[in-house]
Amino acid sequence: MLFCGDTLFAAGCGRLFEGTPQQMHESLNRLARLPMHPRLLRHEYTLSNIRFAKAADPQPGAARTRIAAQQLRDRDLPTLLRHRQEKATNPFLRCDDPA
Questions:
Q1: What is the mean pLDDT of residues 28-42?
Q2: What are phi and psi of 42, to 5 degrees?
Q3: Interacting residues of 16 by C-beta distance below 8 A, sequence separation 6+
């Protein structure tokens, strides 16, 4: 498991209270290169971030993956998604993707 703290959120990323945009970009790129098996623990802003992610990158697969997050939150459970799901649905982990 990986605790991402204020850097990576489900379908989003943290705000810049300290550091520079370049440092945040480098940190997100490092997280994107991690092996595809860890579960990511982070602050729970999943549902609001999904709205942004769908607007920024309206992939049908992303919406299907995130249905599970809604079901977990409906039961007052945290969203604990795998890195591969996050990489496929979080636009901040694909900043270098022209699409």
A1: 77
A2: -160, 175
A3: 24
In a domain, 24, yes or no: yes
Q: What is the pLDDT of residues 46-96, one digit of tens each?
A: 777 777 887 777 666 666 667 777 788 888 887 766 777 777 778 888 877
What is the model's pTM?
0.67
Tokens standing for 60? 């049908």
Query: How many domains, the chain?
Result: 1
Q: How far is CA 31 from CA 4, 24, 68, 76, 85, in A?
A: 9, 11, 22, 27, 13
Domain, as residue range, for 47: 2-93
Tokens of 48: 């609001």
Gyration radius of the chain over CA positions: 13
In single-letter form, the type of residue at position 36 comes to: M
